[in-house]
Amino acid sequence: MAINETHQAKTMSTAMSTATNTATAGTATERPVPRWAVTVARLIPLIGLPVCLWRLPVGFGFLMGMDVPRAQQPLWLTVPYVLTLSLLSEAFALLCSGLVRRWGEVVPDAVPVFGGRRIAPSVVIVPATVAGLALTLLTVDWVLCILGIAGFSDVGYTNGWWRALAATVSGLFALWGPLVLALTYSYYRRRCGPAN
């Protein structure tokens, strides 16, 4: 009787171990992802969110303290534009998590025809690098405008509080490009670098 119970316990232990390995195999990357990269991938949608929220009142005609003439476009045009721009920004920010997840290396099984196929590193690295560089240009523009360098200037604001809030919100957004480039470099090292 004791031998049978021992055999059942071993069988259950093996089954649980196999289930755990199968579960982690579905989510694990080929090589370990650095902890900092996972943290950065989680932060990117959060640093993009304030600028998305900042845009929403502007779409409804509230200028958020900007000292500019009110736009003449009707709400039926500005509201969908601003909502679409904000949703796309957050979608692209969430897409950055593919740089630290398995679905950035292997097409998920749920995708018809291509499910389970390995993704060539260049298919991820090239667009991520281009996007990171384009967003970094926005960072450079933000720095030049905030500091008033080389004739660049920011829009006027009705008071210093609005200016400080706008600088903070857009400053967070300006971090997006360099963070995407850092994640892309980490992805490149993990997928294309020599095995350790």
Mind explaining what this structure looks like?
The structure is a single chain. This protein is mostly helical and 196 residues long. The protein has six helices and no strands. Residues 11-26 have low confidence and may be disordered.
Summary tags:
single chain; 196 residues; mainly alpha; 0% strand; elongated
Summarize this structure briefly.
It is built from six helices and no strands.
Report on the biggest sheet.
Answer: none
Q: What is the strand tally?
A: 0
Shape: elongated
Strand content is under 5%
* Average pLDDT level: 85
The helix/strand class is: mainly alpha
Elements, N to C (H/E):
HHHHHH
Helix segment tally: 6
Rg, nearest Å: 24 Å
**Uncertain segments:** 11-26
* Terminus-to-terminus distance: 48 Å
User: Helicity level, as a percent range?
Assistant: 55-70%
List the helices and strands and how they pair.
Blueprint: H1 2-27, H2 35-59, H3 75-95, H4 121-147, H5 160-174, H6 176-192
Helix pairs in contact: 2-3, 2-5, 2-6, 4-5, 4-6
